[in-house]
TrEMBL record:
Pfam families: NUDIX. Belongs to the Nudix hydrolase family. Residues 1-127 form the Nudix hydrolase domain. GO terms for biological process: DNA repair; DNA replication. Gene3D superfamilies: Nucleoside Triphosphate Pyrophosphohydrolase. Its EC number is 3.6.1.55. The keyword Cytoplasm does not apply. Keywords: DNA damage, DNA repair, DNA replication, Hydrolase, Magnesium, Metal-binding, Mutator protein. The keyword Hydrolase applies. One of its GO terms (molecular function) is metal ion binding. CDD domains: NUDIX_Hydrolase. Its cofactor is Mg(2+). This is 8-oxo-dGTP diphosphatase.
Amino acid sequence: MKLIDKHAWIEIQDGKILSTRSKGRTKYYFPGGKREAGESDFEALSREINEELSISLIEDSTRFLGIFQAQADSHPDGVQVKMTCYTGAYTGTIAAASEIEEIVWLKYQDKHLTSPVDHIIFDWLKERELIR
Ligand SMILES: Nc1nc2c([nH]c(=O)n2[C@H]2C[C@H](O)[C@@H](COP(=O)(O)OP(=O)(O)OP(=O)(O)O)O2)c(=O)[nH]1
């Protein structure tokens, strides 16, 4: 089984969760990406988040949330994506950069606009009353 190992940043404000859409895509994804050789978890996460959202994550505030796995969107059946999710504070102003075309704040009822692994994350957050 092929496994795509990713880190993702979960940012909730006012009960809504930040999500992104890349150029040429229809589904919304949580921001993040794959580790490059030699990077720590925080280095990988903060690099990806800076590239996609133009902000800097603050290392001391970063907290592990959970690991979630499902079929990867836009890949053949059986390819799974594993998302290691973190929360954390940041400096700067969120603005779409590089491949990101759109940034949205989604409610639980918007879950269907996202990928399978994000459905699991939405349910997990809703059970804990972290999103509305
Ligand atoms: N960052 C992120 N990736 C996700 C989410 N849900 C989900 O299925 N993925 C999948 C989409 C990508 O097809 C897959 C592989 O990521 P990748 O880092 O290899 O993607 P990529 O930009 O090279 O895109 P791809 O052409 O391989 O699809 O991870 C999500 O919420 N956030």
